[in-house]
Design brief:
This protein is of the alpha+beta class. Helix content is about 40%, strand content about 20%. It has a domain at about 10-155. The protein has helices at about 115-120, 125-155, 165-175, 180-185, 190-200, 205-225, 230-235, 240-255, and strands at about 10-15, 25-30, 40, 50-55, 60, 65, 70, 80, 90-95, 115, 260-265, 265-275. The strands form three sheets. The chain has a six-stranded antiparallel beta sheet. Strands 8-3-12-11 form a four-stranded antiparallel beta sheet, covered by helices on one side. Strands 5-6 form a two-stranded antiparallel sheet. A hairpin with a 2-residue loop joins strand 5 and strand 6. Helix 3 packs antiparallel against helix 4 (about 180-185), helix 3 (about 165-175) crosses helix 6 and helix 6 crosses helix 7 (about 230-235). It comes from Streptomyces coeruleorubidus.
């Protein structure tokens, strides 16, 4: 992990101030920065995000572009993104199943997709970026984030209450609990578990568990110093062996473990690609 970003972004990250949003949203924030590299990989986390590009009215890559406000569903592999779209961006990181109340479709309809908010929310989504720009001009990032919370509270399609069973399933899968054991703990059939996870988490349970295991691995890599011992990490994170870890790393990140060079240890899911 020798390379780091040329310039780390200026950022503001807060927890939701509205109590109704706290069970659904882990954090929301504003970040700005300028980067010399031309492309980077965004690695899968298993979660969904809302993104608003305040610098330009566009998001996405060459194969999929939207206007500047979009919802990114859970990805099962890496996405190539343009750092120029992160010069001034507002974001919302949803908790597991947290995006579900704000959608009229199941979350798995957005799997591996970036969907424009104009497509999902109609006029409300189409004007969100302008509303946030006005709030930013009037009161800065804090006012912008408060406005975003106001919009989210009004845009719910379902009750703002996470399904406790799906939330427990996500916690157990995140810990590495086998899928069959998770179904047993909930008193569900494996088919019901798969259906509910796809609907609300956006991924089937085995895929979600794989992505979360990968995130546990990245957490350990970025918490350590020096060169990672991949064999030790494989055992600690639940891989069969180092070869299994390497195979999964390639499948989920599109690169080998030794090629992994995050933007910073705090931005472990952004990997530099070029200058």
């Amino acid at each position: 992990m020798a390379r780091t970003a040329e310039q780390l972004p200026v950022s503001l990250t807060v927890r939701p101030s509205a109590p109704a949003l706290a069970p659904l949203i882990g954090a929301l924030g504003y970040a700005e920065g300028r980067f010399a590299h031309s492309a980077e990989l965004s690695l899968p986390t298993g979660g969904a995000q809302l993104l608003v590009n305040l610098d330009g009215d566009a998001l996405g890559s060459s194969d999929r572009r939207t206007r500047g406000a979009a919802l990114q569903g859970p990805y099962t592999g890496p996405a190539v993104i343009d750092p120029a779209q992160q010069r001034a961006v507002v974001w919302v990181a949803f908790r597991p199943a947290g995006a579900y109340p704000f959608l009229s479709v199941p979350v798995n309809a957005l799997r591996d997709r970036l969907a424009g908010l104009d497509e999902l929310w109609g006029t409300d989504g189409a004007v969100l970026r302008e509303r946030l720009l006005e709030a930013m001009a009037a009161g800065g990032p804090q006012a912008c984030l408060r406005e975003l919370e106001t919009v989210l509270l009004r845009r719910s399609e379902r009750p703002l209450e996470p399904d406790p069973a799906v939330r427990l399933a996500a916690v157990l899968l995140d810990r590495g609990t086998p899928v069959g054991e998770v179904a047993d703990r909930l008193g569900w059939t494996s088919r019901r578990l798969a259906r509910r996870c796809a609907e609300q988490l956006g991924l089937p349970p085995k895929r979600y568990a794989r992505v979360r295991r990968f995130q546990r691995l990245l957490g350990r890599v970025n918490a350590g110093s020096g060169e990672p011992d991949w064999a030790v990490l494989a055992a600690a994170c639940g891989y069969h062996d180092q070869a299994h870890l390497i195979h999964e790393f390639r499948a989920l990140a599109g690169i080998t473990p030794t090629a992994y060079a995050p933007r910073s240890s705090l931005e472990r899911n952004h990997v530099l690609l070029g200058g």
